[in-house]
Design a protein that fits this description.
mainly alpha; two-stranded antiparallel sheet; 9 helices; 229 residues; elongated
């Protein structure tokens, strides 16, 4: 009987110690975890587009881990699959959203931002992005070319979209374009958005100036990929 009482007492002490340890651990970690969540939520709330917010949510693993500042910056640009940027360029209109989120984006909500990327999926690693930026430096002698497509000024995008609309290639020039299109992995872009027509306009200018061949144009397109991961 005494042995049974002793065993019960030991079990009781063990349970008490277990509860005490759990309580201490919970109290020591919860405030930290909660503070991190609040910090990440504040960053997410400052991102202007719904697509950017969703990308950040994925990158932060549902607000449980910090996100590289460069990715936050990319999340904070204009993420749109609209075919033109007139609505944003006017300063008072809208552009459509993207494959990530289709909500309209007002010009006022993204004032001062660049036309960006990650329109198909969130980027989680910037290694390839930086490799592309380095390769695009080969084209820096061309005036008004976008060398960081993830940060394309709205006015530059509009200029190239308009150039594309207003420029017709000769049959010989079209052959150069078609050859570039055939060998490019990305083409001007994966969908016919503002970036597609910007890159198409740039390619037409490259051909008109006679400075770049089909392979160089295809390489430019492939290193201008902005879709995301």
């Amino acid at each position: 009987m005494q042995q049974k009482s002793t065993l019960v007492a030991i079990i009781g002490v063990a349970v008490f110690i277990g509860v005490l340890i759990y309580s201490t651990h919970k109290n020591s970690t919860s405030p930290t975890a909660n503070a991190l969540t609040q910090e990440l939520l504040a960053i997410q709330n400052n991102i202007p587009t719904e697509a950017g917010k969703k990308n950040f949510l994925k990158q932060s693993n549902n607000l449980t881990q910090r996100v590289d500042a460069e990715l936050v910056d990319l999340d904070s640009q204009i993420i749109s699959c609209d075919a033109n940027v007139d609505g944003i360029a006017s300063g008072a209109g809208t552009v459509s959203g993207s494959c990530i989120d289709s909500n309209l984006i007002s010009a006022q909500s993204v004032k001062g931002k660049f036309m960006g990327g990650q329109c198909c999926s969130a980027m989680t690693d910037t290694k390839e992005y930086h490799e592309h930026l380095e390769k695009l430096q080969a084209y820096k002698s061309m005036p008004d070319i976008q060398l960081d497509p993830m940060h394309t000024p709205v006015e530059m995008a509009k200029m190239w979209v308009d150039y594309d609309k207003n420029t017709t290639l000769t049959p010989a020039e079209q052959k150069i374009y078609d050859d570039a299109y055939a060998i490019s992995k990305e083409k001007p872009c994966c969908c016919k958005c503002w970036h597609y027509y910007t890159n198409e306009g740039i390619a037409k200018k490259m051909i008109k100036d006679g400075q770049y061949n089909s392979k160089q144009i295809a390489d430019y397109w492939d290193n201008s990929d902005i879709c995301g991961a």
